[in-house]
Amino acid sequence: MNETNARGVRQRSVEIVVPVYNEAHVLADSVGRLHAYLEASFPFPFRITVADNASTDATWQAATDLTLRLPHVHAVHLDAKGRGRALKHVWSNSTADVVAYMDVDLSTGLAGFLPLVAPLLSGHSDVAIGSRLHRQADVVRGPKREFVSRSYNALLKLGLAARFSDAQCGFKAVRTDVFRALAPHIEDNAWFFDTELLVLAQRNGLRIHEVPVDWVDDPDSRVDIVRTALDDLRGMRRMLRAGLTGRSRIPVPHRVPVQSPIGAPQHISSPAPSLEYAS
């Protein structure tokens, strides 16, 4: 993934994580589509990592099959469930300059991916999120999920003074050095992970870039809305206490804007140790 140009200069790179749990029936098609899209149109070196969250079906076999067929796909297996756990594991050990994730159903239009990561690669922003609640977003989903999403984000604005519009959209990216600074302070390993990351970023003065997305809700989604909502409320209470006691202040890396054009190779500091991927 850490490719160099003819002068031996390493290019800026992105690692995209696809967290999965019992998704054997859709994994090959979704990752195949993502890989084909990035190979055809993404101008930076990339890696796709399938993170299997302790699946009990044939997901791990499907993931390892993909690593044999597609050159930019890797897979890692975790023994416990949790989207946040999977992202912490892969992002913390990534050698890429920017780390991202998207849901396996590819509900978000892939045309939004370059606009998502470009401000991070250029050094303009620290965190980037897709937003289904942006006024220019194009979203197709049922009234129940729309109500829950808007209500949750309204609670975040009221209770935690959130200035971002959509905490739970499964389409995010962050500078790797920034994530390493925040990761030890993110306690949640499940769905509240996203909110905790964004609240910590905001409280520490990091710049959050938002991209309006094209979104078509997955009717096969198995997220337990009620249980997730209760977990999120408990997480909000914990974050509120942390804010009141000042425990959210963290030393974070400064932004260093890239001076040359975004597509040009950049001198990058030595990468972190490589993660051993199972295959």
The SSE order reads EHEHEHEHEEHEHHEEH
Low-confidence stretches: 263-279
Global mean pLDDT: 87
- Characterize the biggest β-sheet: 7 strands, mixed
Distance N to C terminus: 16 Å
Cα-atom radius of gyration: 18 Å
Kindly report the spatial arrangement of strands forming the biggest sheet. 3-2-1-4-7-5-8
What share of residues is helical? 25-40%
Would you give an account of this structure?
The protein is 38% helix and 17% strand. Strand 1, helix 1 and strand 2 (46-53) form a beta-alpha-beta unit. It is built from eight helices and nine strands. The chain has a single domain (8-245), classed as Spore Coat Polysaccharide Biosynthesis Protein SpsA, Chain A (Alpha-Beta Complex), CATH 3.90.550.10. It has a seven-stranded mixed β-sheet with strand order 3-2-1-4-7-5-8, sandwiched between helices. A two-stranded parallel sheet has the order 6-9. The longest helix is centred in the last third of the chain and has 21 residues, at 225-245. The radius of gyration is 18 Å and the shape is globular. Pathway: Protein modification; protein glycosylation. Residues 16-181 form the Glycosyltransferase 2-like domain. Its EC number is 2.4.1.117.
